[in-house]
Amino acid sequence: MGVTDCHVHINPVWEMRPEALALLGRPNDEVARFVKDPAALVAYLDRSGIDRAILVNYVAAEVIGYTEATNTFAAEYARHAPERLLATGGIRPDHPDPEAEVRRFVGELGLRALKLHPAHQLFPPNGYVDGAWPRLRALYAACERERLPVIFHTGTSVFPRARNRFADPLLVEDIAVDFPELTIVLAHGGRPFWTERAVFLARRFPNVWLEISGVPPASLLDYFPTLARIAPKTLFGTDWPGPGVKDIGANLAAFRALPLPAEARERILVDNALAVFPRRAPS
Length: 283
Description:
Elements: E1 4-8, H1 18-22, H2 28-36, H3 38-48, E2 52-55, H4 69-78, E3 85-89, H5 98-109, E4 113-116, H6 118-121, H7 135-146, E5 150-153, H8 173-178, E6 184-187, H9 195-204, E7 208-211, H10 220-223, E8 234-235, H11 248-256, H12 262-276
Parallel strand pairs: 1-2, 2-3, 3-4, 4-5, 5-6, 6-7, 7-8
Helix pairs in contact: 2-3, 5-7
């Protein structure tokens, strides 16, 4: 125990577009059972050898169907086991008052991170630089001030209507430069063809972390051949129950089987997540 899965999807499936839900590749009633029963999820985490799970939720009405209601859902779900389930939420990049929404995240809802999915929300994460998405600057500044980590989806998406040009991790570089105290997580590490860019950002910036969910563990060293060296900046995650991720426990076992030094495995599985997502939210 002590392992944190930094990328688990427990989402309001009733909001999903039918074509998006179909891509999960498993019976809908199986997904719905965990969505409606936090105790069942915690029991599953126990069987899988997982101490904590970061429940990744976001807003993407145009592509997936998720609305702002997902934030309340995520917060209420995580309250059933707050030491085990750490919920994230989403904010539209054009939100009229991002500062107030971030304060609500931290105060009223108790969410532990903001998840932005540029490929599904259809915006460049650095869109404030050229003025096309000016409210992003206030959003990032508020997250930096409130010490709220921002998780960016990086790498391709196969969901209908997704725009993958927005998922290049290099677009996050401006944010890392302009907001040096903002904790940034690069979900999926830019896979499959932007992994080197994601690794570069994690190595260059103290506030940027590489997260390796959504990559078959047996292929991790193909995608990230320097994984042992970048272990101090890497987070473990599965992306369960996303497409192709059948079981958290099997994913964890396959990761443990990689020829990595024990210290590197411990950093990736346990220590780094405690630095990014402390056991208790900062006061």
